[in-house]
């Protein structure tokens, strides 16, 4: 009877350590290889049994959502900050810059945002909110005269397609190259002196983020 109080905390500590290890391995695997990494492979890399993994996360969707909770919160916070900015053009530029920085920093989140948003309520709600919020940023920036009138909210997919193709060997170089690309793009989006563009192409957001 005297051993029970010490045994239970030890079990809880082991369970917490296993959970943390699973999430760490999952984030690394998803970022490097996408979301197709099998659950069995994640369990193996974490040094745990498959049964242990499934006790903590019954489905892959559960694991994906938990692995990217911090990024989910960060994305929501970015959108709130942009919509609260009284300068529409600055808010638009800042949001595009932040999204591209997040994509360059953690490509796993891009895949999670697309895949999990089709299967989990939390990610799906964020995706709908993000699309509505970005469209509102576009509208405000255009009405204020900063953003060219023929920019379309669907052009965000083109931005992310271009930014997602940046590969510079190291994380630091990739981030720097991404920043330069975004700076070029934002210059092209300015309303002053803008030449007409071809008609917007409705590239699915799924294709851009994958």
TrEMBL record:
Q: Name one Pfam family in it.
A: TetR_C_43
Q: Where is the HTH tetR-type domain?
A: 16-75
Keywords tagged on the record = DNA-binding, Transcription, Transcription regulation
Highest taxon, organism lineage: Bacteria
DNA-binding region, residues: 38-57
Q: Which PANTHER family match?
A: HTH-TYPE TRANSCRIPTIONAL REGULATOR BETI (PTHR30055:SF234), HTH-TYPE TRANSCRIPTIONAL REGULATOR RUTR (PTHR30055)
* Name of this protein: Helix-turn-helix transcriptional regulator
According to its UniProt entry, this protein's organism is: Pseudonocardia humida
Q: What is the lineage of its organism?
A: Bacteria, Bacillati, Actinomycetota, Actinomycetes, Pseudonocardiales
